[in-house]
Automatic annotation (TrEMBL):
A Pfam match: Polysacc_synt
Name of the protein this chain belongs to: Membrane protein involved in the export of O-antigen and teichoic acid
Tree of life domain: Bacteria
PANTHER family xrefs: INNER MEMBRANE PROTEIN YGHQ, PST FAMILY PREDICTED COLANIC ACID TRANSPORTER
Chief localization: membrane
Length: 426
């Protein structure tokens, strides 16, 4: 518990600095670009992020899970993770480049900006960060992740300040942001290799032995399932923005993206909590009696749901105070959109702890139908609501999808924990 609180405090402090730097960067970017150009930039970032999510194997969770169970096979586990990262990076880049030719106009990116979309898509080729993140979380070196998180946010802030003075803005924005993304990804991988050498961990080809091939198959199986869950869960933000851009245009995308950028500051806190608790919950499930563990999880879920409901109500006055100050008066229409997205993030955070509970019992496969249904329901609701209520309708669709997923996760976790109790008694 002490280690978990230390890790949480480290990442919380880093996220606080990152959030403040992100708000300052957002203020500069919205004022420097304006509603329309900010919308185009956001669509480019969302498009590439969507393909990165679809083509990734999201290896950090399997690295933590398998690393806890088989620490002696860590070299093989990390080697398999690197191979999967490289393959995913190539697949994401190729898919994004090919898709840009056919999908650009459908998502609100005009022909004049397709080449910028392709330039940023090339940065996906260096998306080999899943394995380093998994390794640092496994060995409780959250301080390294925090350092990189802070440095990235400060570099983005400095770049946004410089770009604020430039005339041909959106072109340089895309090029500079793509360069920063590449440098960040490469430097994180290099840092992992340095730490591996210090800790005397040797990378080994998983194809050189029967055990290595088994580890690779386990990594591939676990990573593919985890990746599908992660893609379905996280891609709603990108899909939402692309729906807004395609149906309502670049200006509406700018309004939605500005609100989503503020709400994502809360999402980053959700993610850091998940990073810390994932390993702790996997270990705690082994220590506690099934009845006691079930009771603790259900109580935590009830308390978290109440806190989420209260925080969602507070979201509207927060948005009314913060948004005009940060974004400027041109983005005043983002206030109700932010309130909806903030509520959606509160719901997401409140039920985040159920993910490792379920994965520890049956693996990530059980989460795939829930995550896929959540994305499907969102798209079915979002399109008609976008036609009727505009960007606010899309935000409400995200709230509805998150609420349905939270209910499904609660029911599934309860059933699995009760089954463990019955199995123990028999």
């Amino acid at each position: 518990m002490r280690v978990m609180l230390k890790n949480l405090a480290t990442l919380t402090g880093a996220s606080g600095i990152t959030a403040l730097a992100g708000l300052a960067s957002l203020a500069l970017n919205t004022r420097g670009l304006g509603v329309e150009s900010f919308g185009v930039l956001s669509l480019i970032l969302a498009y590439t992020a969507l393909f990165a999510g679809v083509a990734t194997f999201d290896v950090w969770q399997p690295i933590v899970r398998l690393g806890v169970r088989a620490p002696r096979a860590l070299g093989l586990i990390l080697s398999a993770g690197i191979i999967l990262d490289i393959f995913a990076a190539f697949a994401a880049t190729l898919a994004a480049l090919l898709g840009s030719v056919y999908l650009g106009g459908w998502i609100g990116i005009g022909e004049d900006y397709i080449w910028l979309l392709q330039i940023y898509a090339i940065s996906l080729l260096f998306g080999i960060v899943g394995t380093p993140k998994g390794y640092f979380r496994l060995i409780d070196r959250f301080d390294i992740l925090a350092q990189y998180q802070v440095m990235l946010s400060l570099v983005m802030l400095f770049s946004s300040f410089i770009l604020w003075w430039v005339e041909e803005k959106i072109v340089l924005y895309v090029m500079v942001f793509a360069t920063i993304a590449v440098i960040y990804k490469i430097s994180l991988m290099v840092r992992m290799l340095i730490e591996l050498q210090k800790n005397d961990v040797r990378l080994m080809s998983p194809y050189s032995s029967l055990r290595g091939r088994r580890v690779f198959k386990m990594m591939l199986k676990n990573s593919a399932s985890t990746s599908l869950v992660s893609t379905f869960a996280t891609s709603r933000r990108q899909v939402a923005l692309l729906i807004v851009g395609g149906l309502l245009g670049g200006a509406a995308a700018g309004i939605f993206a500005a609100a989503a950028s503020l709400a994502s500051a809360f999402a980053k806190f959700s993610n850091l909590v998940f990073q810390v608790i994932f390993k702790e919950f996997v270990q705690a499930a082994k220590r506690f009696d099934p009845k006691l563990w079930h009771r603790k999880i259900m109580r935590l879920t009830a308390v978290a749901a109440l806190v989420a409901a209260f925080a969602s109500i507070v979201g509207l006055p927060i948005g009314s105070l913060v948004l005009p100050t940060v974004l400027g008066n041109h983005f005043i229409a983002s206030v109700p959109v932010f309130s909806g997205l903030f509520a959606a993030e509160c719901i997401h955070l409140a039920f985040l702890h159920l993910n490792p509970v379920i994965q520890n019992k049956v693996g990530p496969k059980a989460l795939i139908p829930i995550a896929a249904a959540g994305l499907g329901i969102f798209v079915l609701i979002a399109i008609p609501l976008a036609h009727s209520w505009g960007v606010i309708g899309v935000a409400l669709a995200i709230v509805a999808a998150n609420a349905m997923m939270a209910l499904a996760l609660t029911v599934l976790a309860d059933q699995l924990l009760r089954r463990s109790i019955l199995t123990r008694e028999v």
